[in-house]
Amino acid sequence: MFSKMNAIKNMTLQFYQNLGKLFYAIAAADRVVETKEFETLKELVKNQWLEVDDINDAFGSDAAYQIEIVFDWLNTHETELSIEKYFNDFIAYKNEQKHLFTDAVNKLIIRTASAIAASFSGINKSELILLAKLDMELKK
User: Fold this and answer.
1) Enclosing domain of residue 35
2) What is the pLDDT of residues 98-130, one digit of tens each?
3) What InterPro entries does the entry give (predicted)?
């Protein structure tokens, strides 16, 4: 049986894992994930996402590192770039867990997604479309 703390921890891990999927989808929107996009993500996780909560994963690391772990795993193991699937997975999770998506969190999500998209040669059309869809979804 889960304690309330375990339930919160599990929910938070899923939150960060779904963010990893979302940010991967943004980076892969143009069908190529550049090293600079992953570096930008790691910098933002370190400087901004670690401050969101105090939850640790099973290994004692800040749960926010799940963003990087999922992004990196998808980047190294994904043979088909399932951008739509990962974006939709994130949106489905957001719709199930609306209480986690405060105005401050939503702004950080948009800021992170935009920074990833802009980190390599600016924001292209496919990234811009996905960013616009994300913005609309977060405002619902």
Assistant:
1) 4-138
2) 988 999 999 999 999 999 999 988 888 999 999
3) TerB-like
Name the domain count of the chain: 1
Q: Dump pLDDT digits (tens) for 27-42.
A: 999 888 999 999 999 9
Q: How is the chain classified by DSSP, letter by letter? A: ---HHHHHHHHHHHHHHHHHHHHHHHHHTTS---HHHHHHHHHHHHHTGGGS---B-TTSSBTTHHHHHHHHHHHHH-SS--HHHHHHHHHHHHHH-GGG--HHHHHHHHHHHHHHHHTTTS--HHHHHHHHHHHHHHT-
Quote the pTM value.
Answer: 0.87
Spatial separation of the C-alpha atoms in residues 62 and 99, rounded to whole Å: 21
**Quick one: which of 31, 32, 30, 50 has its CA closest to 41?**
50
